[in-house]
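TICKET: design request
STATUS: open
ATTACHED STRUCTURE:
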């Protein structure tokens, strides 16, 4: 399913934050958790259960705090690449989502056309929220809506 919908790749993104949030935190000390404008209830983890062929989930971060506002400058380190195997359960903490971007891809060695992976994502959401609905960057073509 992922291979068909997203060309075997979901690009670098953060689910609840934009690069400017991290930049304001570093440059002005603004705590993004205070106002809670996000769809996901503040402080709750995201649970991700995955099945299917092996994928990788690299985490990226600004090497220097002056680069926090420009995700093109973020670096990926091999030690922060999470292998996603059949039956992987991730517990993604809100601070992980704030300080790191994530993405998913099939390993480059995997070239056959039969690749597939399914992820079940569990979040604790507000009943109604107008701002910052979930989306997949950079194209934002496949918006995920909640009531």
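STATUS: resolved
RESOLUTION: sequence designed for all positions
ATTACHED SEQUENCE:
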């Amino acid at each position: 399913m992922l291979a068909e919908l997203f060309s075997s790749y979901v690009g670098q993104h953060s689910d609840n934050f934009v690069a400017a949030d991290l930049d304001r935190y570093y440059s002005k000390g603004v705590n993004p958790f205070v106002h809670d404008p996000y769809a996901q209830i503040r402080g709750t983890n995201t649970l991700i259960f995955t099945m299917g062929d092996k994928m990788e989930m690299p985490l990226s971060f600004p090497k220097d705090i002056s680069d926090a506002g420009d995700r093109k400058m973020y670096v990926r380190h091999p030690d922060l690449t999470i292998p996603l195997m059949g039956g992987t359960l991730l517990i993604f903490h809100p601070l992980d989502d704030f300080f790191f971007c994530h993405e998913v891809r099939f390993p480059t060695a995997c070239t056959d056309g039969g690749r597939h992976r399914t992820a079940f994502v569990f979040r604790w959401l507000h009943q109604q929220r107008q701002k910052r609905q979930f989306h997949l960057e950079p194209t934002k073509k496949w918006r995920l809506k909640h009531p």
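CLOSING REMARK: The CA atoms of residues 48 and 121 lie 5 Å apart. Residues 2-122 form one domain.
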